[in-house]
Amino acid sequence: GDVAVVVPAAGAGVRLGPGAPKALRLLEGEPLLVHAIRRVAAAPSVRMIVVAAPPADVDAVRTLLAGIAPVTVVAGGAERQESVAAALAVVPEDVGIVLVHDAARCLAPVSLVERVAAAVRDGAAAVIPVLPVVDTIKEVAPDGAVLGTVDRSVLRAVQTPQGFRASILRAAHAAAADSHTDDAGAVEKLGRPVTCVPGSDLALKITRPIDLALATHLLTLPDP
Ligand code: C5P
Which parts of the sequence are marked as the site Positions MEP for the nucleophilic attack (predicted)? Predict the structure, then answer.
């Protein structure tokens, strides 16, 4: 493999309700992070995996993943982008392609990891997996008054893993002053092109309790 995968897994998971840090919540008896790492590690392109864990759980995560795949575990930060930066800092300079993959998208299939990696290998600077937006999207004022309807056909919902030429991701993170919710956003601010590949329904982000119910069902389906 020629790819390093950086896995931010340090979030609290407030929207899931009270409990352990999100990446350590259980899905069919196993932490979300274990589900995620198992799939990432099975991708032929992947040479190394770096996990950014909740700072209080670094040793526990190391122990948890020891039996799953060879991973490097570092302490994450208060914001997602700090967690990504901490993990990126330990990726060796000779690794040319870096994927960033949220632990919360724990059912993202091997085929998606390979699709994103292949697009970077084929020359793209930055690659994001996307899906069409299914809901009608409206812009709404703070008082609830509708300001307008956004043209849905030009919108895409963005997933992870996102893939990057390593040098571009490092430059984007170094330049990122204000916060961004995904890594491609930092690349866009550099003025570098970001391209799309088809995403996967299985790469849903476990955020709310209903997502856990859906993921439990998805686990019963064969991996594509
Ligand atoms: O909060 P959200 O669902 O956007 O988090 C996306 C991913 O970023 C999750 O896997 C979460 O664990 C991770 N994260 C992190 N460090 C933070 C906040 C979120 O690694 N401080």
Answer: 152, 205
